Amino acid sequence: MAAMKKIAIIGLGMIGSSIAHAARRGSLAKEIAGHDASADVLERAGRIGFCDTLHADIGAAVKDAQLVILCAPVGAFKDIAQAIAPHMAPGAILSDVGSVKGAVVRDVAPFVPAGVHFIPAHPIAGTEFSGPEAGFASLFDGRWAILTPVPGSDGQAVARLRAFWKGLGSQVDVMEVGHHDLVLAITSHLPHLIAYNIVGTAHDLEQVTEGEVIKYSASGFRDFTRIAASDPTMWRDIFLNNREAVLEVLGRFNQDLKALQEAVEQGNGELLFDTFTRTRAIRRAIVDIGQDTSAPNFGRKS
Amino acid sequence: MAAMKKIAIIGLGMIGSSIAHAARRGSLAKEIAGHDASADVLERAGRIGFCDTLHADIGAAVKDAQLVILCAPVGAFKDIAQAIAPHMAPGAILSDVGSVKGAVVRDVAPFVPAGVHFIPAHPIAGTEFSGPEAGFASLFDGRWAILTPVPGSDGQAVARLRAFWKGLGSQVDVMEVGHHDLVLAITSHLPHLIAYNIVGTAHDLEQVTEGEVIKYSASGFRDFTRIAASDPTMWRDIFLNNREAVLEVLGRFNQDLKALQEAVEQGNGELLFDTFTRTRAIRRAIVDIGQDTSAPNFGRKS
Lengths: 302, 302
Description:
The structure is a homodimer.
Chain A: E1 4-10, H1 14-25, E2 29-35, H2 39-48, E3 53-55, H3 58-62, E4 67-70, H4 77-84, E5 93-96, H5 102-108, E6 117-118, E7 121-123, E8 144-147, H6 155-167, E9 171-174, H7 177-204, H8 210-215, H9 221-227, H10 232-241, H11 243-266, H12 269-288
Parallel strand pairs in A: 1-2, 1-4, 2-3, 4-5, 5-6, 8-9
Antiparallel strand pairs in A: 7-8
Helix pairs in contact in A: 7-9, 7-11
C-alpha cells in the first residue's frame, strides 16, 4: 500500500507500540503520531522512539491523521471518542484494537463525526507483557486481524484498513460484531477467566504452600500462569464489556465440567478417555495451520 | 554416583525413554534394560536404541536389576507388580514415575518381595507428546523429582535413588505420599482437567465453528490445547486414582469461579481487577526460580 501521510496511535502499551514498530518496518506512514494518557508512558515511548511525534494533547495527535487507532483499554474509549471527535480530519478512518466489539460500537459510534469512517478491528495477537517496552514489530506476523465494519461502513475505507493490517504482517478477516464477541468469548475471554481463576485458587489453598505450587508448576500449572499474568485493567474492561457472551460460554463450560466431575466421582474411565482423546485433534489442527508451534512444551528453553 | 550394574525400565513411553536417554548421558548404568507390553513400542524403542537390552519378557527385564522403574500408566501397576515380584533381585530398588502416589502404594506395596526396597517417585517433567520417540536426555534437567518413601523405607536405598535422579539432571525432594497427591492435584491434575474441559467445550459449541476456534486460538485458547493433547490413557488413570484430592481441589476451583462469575454478572470491576493483579505475582515467582521461561509467549517461534 502507499504510505499514509499520518497515522495516530492512541494508547502506547504493548499493542499500540507494536503497531508503531510494525508500521515503521512496513513504511506504512510518513508520520506515526502517538498519544498516551500517562505522562510516564509517553516519556518511556519517547525513549524507545517508535513514534515520530508524541503528543500529551490528544487533539494534536489525531489532527490531520488519515488513520486513528484506539489502543487504550476499552473502558476508556467513550471518553477518548468524545475528546478526539472535534479534531479528526474528514475522510479519516477511526479504528481500534479492542478485544470486544459490541461495547466499542456502543461507546464510540455516537461520537464519530460525519465524514469519518468508523471501522472497529481486533488483532488476535499479544503476549502476557504490557507497556511500551513490550511491543515489537513482528507481533502481528501470520496472526489474524478481524475487522468488524458496522452497517454503512464505506467499502473503500474497509479496503484501506485491510491493506494497513496486511502491511503490519497480519492476515485479515471480516466478521459481524456480535459474532466476533461470541467467538472471542470462547477463544480468549473464557480461557483468560479460567486461567485467572485457577491461579487464584492455587494461591488460596492453605493445605499446600504457595512455594510448593510455584516449585512444582512445570507439571501443568505454569501454562496457566502466563495468561493469568496479562494486564489487569485491560481484562477487567473486557469482562465488564462482553458480559453476555462470556456468561453464556461460561455456562457451557460449567455444564461440561460437571460431567467430567461426575466421571471422576463415579470412576467412569471410558468417558474420561473419550474426552481426552477428542481434545488431541484440536491441538493438531492449530499447529497444522501455523497458529502454534509444533515444538514440545511450546519450545521452551527452561 | 557409581554406575549401577543394571537398571530396568518398564514402559518405554516419553518418560521411560527419557530416563534411558538421560541415564546413558550420565553413565548411570552399565546395562539399561527395557520392557514394554506393546510389541510395537518395543520395536520402535529398538530402532531408536536408547536401551542396551530389550525384553518382551518382563521377568527377564527386571532380573538382576539393581533398580526397576515402572513407567507405564498407573492403572497397569498392580498387574506389573505381580508379574515382576518373583524375578526381582534381593536388595534391588523398585520405584516408579506415576503422577499419583497413594494409589501406587496401594497397588504395588502388597507385592513387593522381602528384601526389595519400594520407593515411589514422581518426576515433575514431561511434554504433551507421548511414545518412545518423544523422549530426550535433557527432559529432567533442572526439574524436580519427588520421592515419597513409605514407612520403613531404607535410608540408604532412598539415598541411592536420590543420587540416580540427580544423575538424570533433576533436583530431588522428599514428600509424604498423601501430601504429594494433594500438591499435584493443584499443580497438575486440576490444570489438566480444566484444559481438557475447556477444549472440549470449544469443540462442542455449535454457534461458533471449530474452524474459527482453531483460527483465532492465539488469543488464549491455544495455551490450553497443549496440555489437552496429553496422553489419554495416562490421564484417565490419574483421575481414576487421585479421585479424592482432585474432587477437593475442583470444589475450591468451582467456588472461586462462582465468585468471578458473579463479579462479571454484577459488573464488579474492583473484584475482577484485584483478582487479576494477584495472579501476576505467581507467574513472576515461577519465572524467577527457573521453572518457566521469561520470554514472552513462552518464547514461541510461531
